[in-house]
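Hi support team,

I submitted a single chain yesterday and got back a structure, but I'm not sure I'm reading the token output correctly. Could someone confirm the output below corresponds to the sequence I sent? I've pasted both exactly as they appear in my results page.

Thanks,
R.
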Amino acid sequence: MSTELLAPLDLAFWHLESTEHPMHLGALALFEGHADADADTVAALLAERAAAIPRLKMRVRDVLLPVGGAAWSTAKDFDVRRHVRQIRLPDGDFAAHATHIAGELMEQPLERGLPPWEMYVLTGGTAPGPFAVLVKLHHALADGMRAVAIGAGIFDQIAGARAAGARRERSVPPRSWLAGPRQVVGFARDRIEEVGRAVGIGADVLRASRLDLWGAGALAAGSSGTRRLGTAVLGLDDVLKIRRVAGGTANDVLLAVVAGALRRWMLERGEPLPGADPRALVPVSRRRPGSPAGSGNKLSAYLLGLPVSEPDAWARLTSVRAAMDRNKAQGPGRGAGAVAVLADQLPPLAHRFGAPIAGSAARLLFDVLVTSVPLPRSTLSLGGSPLRQIYPMAPLARGQSLAVALSTYGGQVHVGLVADAKAVPDLDRLAGSMNDELAALLRAATG
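Hi R., thanks for writing in. Yes, this is the structure output for that exact sequence:
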């Protein structure tokens, strides 16, 4: 893998970034320690495995053609030691300290001249003891599914399979920067066919842009550039029990949990409920199984009104399920949430100069991001230390104060809440409300 043009959506993510709004994904993984898992050993193992992942050696550079475009190219001076770092945490509650420092580290943009990723080994004051690994990957480098595929390479099970000769990540031939005659004809034909779809999406976006924005409350606060991480752990068995009674999907249940948690949190803060329900952007992958590793981000999204004004927990779940059924019937390529599909219709120069405008428009389209990040179902470990918990983290768009990411691992749903630290100083209260809402739904399902 030598040179590869950034896909349109990757280019959009690259140019959307600012100092106050870094566009990287993250994950905080907590491990059970053992006698041989000291900080130096874990850091050396991480460095060795990260250096064996070709994608992590790629950096972004500008290109002459297409105008405004950029390409991935292998960093000739790649040094994995610039990307893997160690931090020793104070004595005390290790998980709490790790969560706090992870939020602060998520504030810091990745250095753009280097391959855009970092890993941090977080250790406590006593050994052997638990340790954590924070992974940061730029959204241009990978969407959620690709981030998991890349990040999973650090675990014993995946690294062992690679060493045993498992199929490696397929390289993608460099895309020609100048189209040939046949490509030009095909390009024109494809764009003619896509114009109707693009215009339809654009109309839906305009209809979705609202003047009924939240006038008060934490989620309407201005961005400060600070970050805070909150976590919650939900029982997967409870989620599945509720789903069996309500129908729909486990994701419908989790979206209802988010809606109910927001309602509880706002009422506990003494905030008036909004006149219009907040709108969630729910990303959905358009990636086909077996697609090439370097094929870029493949995302669309659904828009969902979170029924925080509804006082009954079961009625909230019913509302969420009905809305998601309508979204799925329409499909991920249609509707206002499919705005990401428009990235494929724009030339690179439009991404370079239009990104600030598009970033500012996010506040008109949605209020909170809620995303599910898939993980391998098998038990994972690092250097023989079992993975106990893993919290995904999503970036905050300009004008957003909260992003919610969920992953299932080890019979639990791990929730990572990334918030603007000044706008949402009581993020732990919101995290606690997630379990309260799940308990309410379970009572309704079993009572």
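A quick pointer for reading it: The radius of gyration is 22 Å. Let us know if anything else looks off.

Best,
Support desk
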